[in-house]
Give the backbone structure.
Amino acid sequence: MTEAIALDQVAADAVALVRAFRANGAVSFQDVPLADARASYLKACAANGVAAQDVAAVRTLEFPVADGTANVRVYRPLGSHPDSVTPLVVFIHGGGWVIGNLDSHDSLCRSLANQSGASVVAVDYRLAPEHRFPLPLDDCLAAIHFIRDNALDLQVDLNNAVIAGDSAGGNMATVLANHPEYQVDGLRFTAQVLFYPVTDLTASHRSYQRFTEGFALTAASMYWFREQYVVPGQDLSDARLSPLLHAEGRTQPDLFILTVGHDPLADEGIAYAAAAAGAGTVVMHHHLPRHAHGVLTSAGKIETGRTLLTQAAHFIASRFTAPR
């Protein structure tokens, strides 16, 4: 086990949150019962996220999944005409496939909608361990089918579509953008926006060894999330779990990727950006060496998070063309 990174190595706008986390015992998700982990994550996102902006309209809709139903929440951007068709962003929330929901990322989605000019459709996939791999991913695929089949009602332009997600949501977003078994006729993503994504669930990168304590997400957290998500014996090199291992030589949709230095996922995210660029993908990679995982869901307290959220929204807007 390594020692916790000293606070003077943490970005100035993030020190207060890290200091408070450590002063409160540095209790992370794997240290408490599942229900408490889920509740504390929602509380932290509400306390630390960006202020919830007004949008033109919000709707929560039900869609069918295997053996049940799930929900999407549709955010129509402020200033859009009620009868107009807008570009589309499909957003997949993070939380290790185990925690998080539509509410945890509500303010983030509102900001993305308003700043990009797109309707953001957030997916409330069912969580592990109650629904293990590949069910959360399959729920997201079902949501994309639902969006395609209801594009007229949703007033979204399927020719101007971007997929986005943070952490575990970033993992599923890039799989949905690239994996051949998850492509949907009539809705192809022209770009992907990944915030500190999981790209290699084998956990074989050195950043796992560097971050074992002192932050909300550590190597132990990731091992716990993995244990909840996949069944024992699962091949962790599967492209749906570890897309990095299959990225070499494969051109992807244009990629905006954010990585942060104080994160067990740092090295695999950097490697994913490099592999995509090496294959000819258009890549915009932002690396924050002194920030930690979750900077965007803490963007109400961390100014750099707000800046990166705006930059991501501008990237999204730049990928849209005039409606066809």
User: Anything to note?
Assistant: The longest strand covers residues 156-166. The mean pLDDT is 97. The domain at 7-318 is CATH 3.40.50.1820 (Rossmann fold). The chain has one domain: 7-318.
